[in-house]
Design a protein that fits this description.
- Helix content is about 30%, strand content about 30%.
- The chain has helices at about 1-10, 30-45, 60-70, 130-140, 160-165, and strands spanning about 15, 20, 55, 75-80, 90-95, 105-110, 120-125, 145-155, 170-180, 190.
- Strands 5-6-4-3-7-8-9-10 form an 8-stranded mixed sheet, with helices on both faces. Strands 1-2 form a two-stranded antiparallel sheet.
- It binds guanosine-5'-monophosphate.
- The site of guanosine-5'-monophosphate (5GP) has 19 residues, from β2, β7 and α4.
């Protein structure tokens, strides 16, 4: 998506350790007009999917998911980072390894808000190694619901998450795929689409 790629080129900052900082428009200060254009694009890409719920993870996914929900006309559920292990059986829970924080934490979703009747679109800001998405996909599976697709704002194509998630057969739509980025020069290269791809 050219609009997002242009914004990453303009305002993204390449940090050490393969981290791209986009907090001036995506995950701290939020450009809601840009989110709206992203949501429109996901709506087009998942037009033939019977989506009745959007699932994301706190905190950075929530803003994106809420704007997308205005286009899909469905509720948003966000997986919460649990403070303590939940043993009362009212939630689905899964461990996730955090790329940015380098540690493992548990995320939960209430059994009340996701169930076998749901057809879920999973949305998140970044796809790096794919741990966050794998966790969200396993919550959906535990609930007996269907993953209709995965929408990502920025995929870091030089990490292995994209391949891992696509290998499950899921329709993964990343609006910008960064194939390489250079911390010293700040140069960011995007994956170009094959002829015929949208
Ligand atoms: P994964 O689980 O795919 O390794 O990482 C995805 C999560 O880590 C995302 O939810 C995102 O919050 C965070 N993340 C991964 N890479 C980056 C990055 O380069 N920049 C920022 N800002 N967040 C990232």
């Amino acid at each position: 998506m050219k609009l997002l790629e242009g914004r990453i080129q303009k305002d993204g900052v390449v940090k050490a350790g393969g981290v791209l900082k986009v907090d001036s428009f995506l995950n701290h200060q939020m450009d809601v007009e840009l989110f709206d254009a992203m949501a429109e694009e996901w709506k087009r890409l998942f037009a033939n999917r019977p989506i009745n719920k959007i699932l994301t993870i706190e905190a950075s996914g929530i803003g994106i998911a809420c704007i997308a929900a205005r286009h899909f006309h469905v509720p948003v559920v966000f997986a919460k980072k649990a403070k303590s292990i939940n043993i009362d059986g009212e939630v689905y829970a899964t461990p996730i390894h955090s790329f940015t924080h380098g540690r493992e934490y548990e995320v939960i979703v209430s059994r009340k808000y996701i169930g076998p009747e749901d057809h879920v679109l999973i949305l998140d800001d970044f796809l790096a190694n794919g741990c966050a998405l794998e966790g969200l996909m396993s919550l959906v599976k535990d609930a007996g619901a269907v993953v209709e697709g995965v929408g990502i704002a920025i995929e870091k194509g030089f990490q292995r998450g994209g391949d891992r998630i696509r290998a499950t057969g899921a329709q993964v739509e990343s609006l910008a795929i960064v194939d390489s980025m250079d911390e010293k020069t700040g140069l960011i290269r995007f994956r170009t689409k094959e002829a015929g791809e949208q």
